[in-house]
Amino acid sequence: MSKERLYLFDTTLRDGQQTQGVQFSLEDKHEIALMLDELGIDYVEGGWPGANPTDSEFFESAPKLKNATFLAFGMTKRVGRSAANDEVLAGVVNAETPAVCLVGKSYDFHVTKALGVELEENIAAIADSISHLVGLGREAMFDAEHFFDGYKANPEYALASLHAALEAGARWVVLCDTNGGTLPAEVHEITKAVIASGIPGDKLGIHTHNDTENAVANTLAAVDAGARQVQGTLNGLGERCGNANLISLIPTLLLKEPYASTLETGVSREGLASLTRASRMMDDILNRVPLRSAPYVGASAFAHKAGLHASAMLKDPSTYEHVDPSVVGNERIIPMSNQAGQSNLRKRLSDAGLKVDKGDPALARILDLVKAQESAGYTYDTAQASFELLARRELGLLPQFFTIDRYRVIVERRKNRLGETITLSEAVVVLFINGEKVLSVSESLDPGGSDRGPVNALSRALAKDLGPLQPYIADMKLVDFKVRITNGGTEAVTRVIIDSEDSAGRRWSTVGVSPNIVDASFEALLGAIQWKLVRDGAPAKGK
């Protein structure tokens, strides 16, 4: 049986930029567009030409896409002007993109109250705008704003807006759940009604927002009803609560039934395997820490903690995982914790390249050590790199690369020459490498001269000069820092977890525990460097 084509439309560069705190640079936009093209997305919406200087410059230097159709976004012409003489529409047209998506009103209340025009005038504006684009040889699309609310208030008028666009030559008409308040059953019912009105599913799209945590479910409901274009953003970025998350939708559509056997998209198996990397790259561009619990691509998406569960899972992963993690570029994790059993432990050691026979006394020693450490405040559930170091040490397989002699951190708060109160942090680390004493000093100042704290100063000093080991850690960076007080009162213990990353895209976590936050941080920093040196095969001390 031949499969129906389902088209994927990404709005990250416009909708995603409406996320609070997000502002893409020109370079960011180019990087994201090329990533989407490589992934296999059919349509990449670049933004609204003229809306801001960055968007204008982006369209002037449009990315060279190999597979995806690049398009501009705008709005239908204003009532009282012809499509050819509307300067706002002209700005969109002048971007010279092969396709254009125009948003227009489909809710009668918005037409008469927000626009202040007659209902038929709005219908004429939709038709004239689409006809103008088609006459210029562009692929035209119409986004029906607040369609579901409009349909529930006045179905005849909402449908009339769609038919006007379609009859004027639109390739797609898109149903927009603009305020994110519609639920899946309603989306399915209304989408079916739209198709029954004479609009074919292969010309119908869906655009949902996530205000009720139903954006992905609503999109699937529309697909179930017959819509054949889906719009969304990477990692669900978007205004308020975000948009439909393409990172969740794509693998669901490719791997789950009935979609996998009846529909096809432009995303290949190779593209699907790059999904985790794409999601994390998006977070990296935004300087955000990836959500560990994100479906399909999160670091915890395929983590199996309980000993009995993990033991059975290792015998037949398919019974405990809904998809193979490697299919989406992710990996299975067997975390170590005080709930762990020897099956978990041997699997985790195997993943680290450590082969330990079943029944080896070292297994019991490592488990006892993990439980004792967690009683003292450590956690190896998330700090997998620290667990590996602990196990290597117990097995006698942890190389010694250098020896820490001492460190010192100074935080100074004073007035500068302008009379402003400033804080400066300085760290000194003294260590020995191959018998040679190395002293590193570093301040924690960003390029703008602002202090970034004592832990940052310590991190810089520790990684500043490791002599022959330096090339192995040159691409390493600290990407997240989490602090927790594990018990209160005068005997409070501080736990620090640090996430690190390198140019190969590896991300690892280490933990440190101490009554002193700086000392706990130093332990976690030291572990991060040691793990990197071990994994990259750095020479041990004296070699």
UniProtKB/TrEMBL annotation:
Q: Name one GO biological process term.
A: L-leucine biosynthetic process
**Source organism's superkingdom?**
Bacteria
Q: Is S-adenosyl-L-methionine found in the keyword set?
A: no
Q: Which organism is it from?
A: Aliiruegeria lutimaris
What protein is this chain from? Answer: Citramalate synthase
Q: Which SUPFAM superfamilies match?
A: 2-isopropylmalate synthase LeuA, allosteric (dimerisation) domain (SSF110921), Aldolase (SSF51569)
Q: Which keywords accompany this UniProt record?
A: Amino-acid biosynthesis, Branched-chain amino acid biosynthesis, Isoleucine biosynthesis, Transferase
User: Which reaction is catalysed here?
Assistant: pyruvate + acetyl-CoA + H2O = (3R)-citramalate + CoA + H(+)
Q: Which residues form the Pyruvate carboxyltransferase domain?
A: 6-273
Q: Identify one Pfam family in the record.
A: HMGL-like
Assigned protein family: Belongs to the alpha-IPM synthase/homocitrate synthase family.
